[in-house]
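Batch manifest, entry 17 of 40.
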Amino acid sequence: MNDYLIKTARNDDEKRLLARLHELVQRAAHGYGGPSDFLDLRQQELAQAVAVNGTAVSWHLDGGYQEAERKRLVVYPDWEVASDSRIAFIRIIHKYKDQSAGHRDYLGAVLNLGLKREKLGDIVVQDSGAFMIADADLAGFICQHLSRVKQCSVLAEVISSEEFVFNPPGFTALQVSMASLRLDVAIAATFNLSRHDVDSIIETGNVKINHMETCKPSTPVKAGDLISVRGLGRFRLEEVGGLTRKGRHHVLINKVGLV
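Output type: structure tokens
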């Protein structure tokens, strides 16, 4: 890897990820294409930085559906049409209709089977269960062993991509003005909190930007950033517009439910 790529890493975990992605791209250049593990938004930025520096390869990001947040980097020789993303769709149904569970419950149940988070894509919660995106090699194992989620009895089965149904979560659009494009300012404006309360939330490790934890209230934010606040919800900075007469930023925020 060149020095630029190495300098983009913020910690040792990211350096190891860059090394794995670099190896993936190098294998594809020699005719052995394939997918990476599932990546969060920050990891996808790193993956794209590695992929664009590859030679004699083509690549794309795939999470199973267009709106997916967690995606795999799929790299293949540029003489191939494409490479298999090795993605499976799993439907999880509750045996009893009066039972329900949340995203954390489904994720925790699968991780308790001994699987790693990077082998799982998005989990889309529905009224009567959930859809889960997973590595195709592990789909059968998940369906065989996943029988309970949050004290609820469930059935899991592999389905085709055509049977997968994505219902976008409801969101609230907020038009706010911010004195500066900082993390603490954005959270305070979105959830109507004092800066003191926001600083405490951030400094105790309850906030992530693009799935990466940050403990600095002064962290800059930009259009497109997805910000998660544990116990409150998450929001995306959809647009950052011009300045008001008082020098404040016009910002459009889409706020969704609890995380």
